[in-house]
Amino acid sequence: MKIAFFVYEYPPAIVGGLGTYAQYITQEMVRQGHDVSVYTMNPGNKYDTREVVRGVEVHRPMGVDATNVFPLMVAEGLRQWGHFFNDIFIYNLLSATKFVNQQLRIQKEEFHIVCVHDWLSAIAGLAIKNSTSLPVVAHIHSTEWGRRRDDGSPFIQALEWELAWQADRVITVSEAMKDDLSRHNWPSAKISVVWNGVDPEVYSPERVSAEEAKAVRERYGVGPEETMLFFIGRLTWVKGVRNLVQAMPEVLREYPRTKLVILGKGEEQRDVMEMASRLNIADSVITRFDFVSEKERIAHYAAADICIFPSTYEPFGIVSLEAMAMEKPLVVGARGVVGFREQVVPAGPEQTGIHANGNDPMDIAWGIKVLLSKPQAAREMGRHGRERVLRHFTWRQVAKQTIEIYESLVQEKAMMLAAS
After folding, report:
1. Fold of 2-197+395-419
2. Of 87, 108, 114, 142, which is least surrounded by CB within 10 A?
3. According to the CATH classification, is domain 205-392 in 3.40.50.2000?
């Protein structure tokens, strides 16, 4: 298939899980024989406007500064976004225009399908839907009402809603997310679920030496006889990181030789530090407010004994797959719209970790203590985790399932056009 792939972030400009997903699935689609053209942002206009990266054609249109024009045309809520709204709108408009004019009209290249990812590329998807007969798939990785305490921006919600109803198919990342979309009156009949994945050859404990793992532990002052708990992710309220810090006094009462390493950036950086100080556990909670390379991230997983992701809203959560592939036992949030509960097996002979209520620090503490009390069983859970990844969560499987949906949609669209 020839696939147009619209996504806000793409390597090397990655800011979160969406960029990681985009990188791996497009390269896997190419490995499976498909032709993929990515249309993405060009932050700071510092990247080539077109290049081929591991077989993936990547377009990054250069943006223009219209920040003194948009306030004259848009509502007050959007004016406050400043450069961000300018950059998003220009990226979408230029990408959609480039796709329609250059690819379809001039080069006469026949694309089979257009896929757009979240609201950040919704404007492009809707514009292409208006301008071509190509089927459009909306990939929904999260929603505005889930990310924000106050339901967020009415503008973003309106974009999400319009994209959901105009798209020919919606693909989301978990059954939990599909249920949430249906509860919000999205068109259930056209929503499909495809889990995300991880590359178990990249995320493999065999790729990290004992010396590399030891160096990570030493950096944070974790001794050989101490247990390293590890959290990585954006420091925002939906990730439950403050609840994790609040759980630590209860953990330390029974297991004082335990340290929590928090790696990530976000609006809760100061809150995390202040809370650890107020609880008198600052020596046991080590923070590093940084966004590290994939290689360094893998070394941190290797160094950790237990990984903890107590999210309260997490449509999927690739970090748990990364930890499972690295043979680490997990404590994950499993209450609410959280895809972790579809990844992490909480009981039985194939158990990979513990389900907890990410809103409840005492429940998080309980989950951590269960694993600390059974170190041999916890290591066995880690091994089960990697086995589960190999069975269900490789990018090869993800790409194959996604392509099957694309192909069925293309066939349906062709039949409809033929009938008309």
Report:
1. Rossmann fold (3.40.50)
2. 108
3. yes
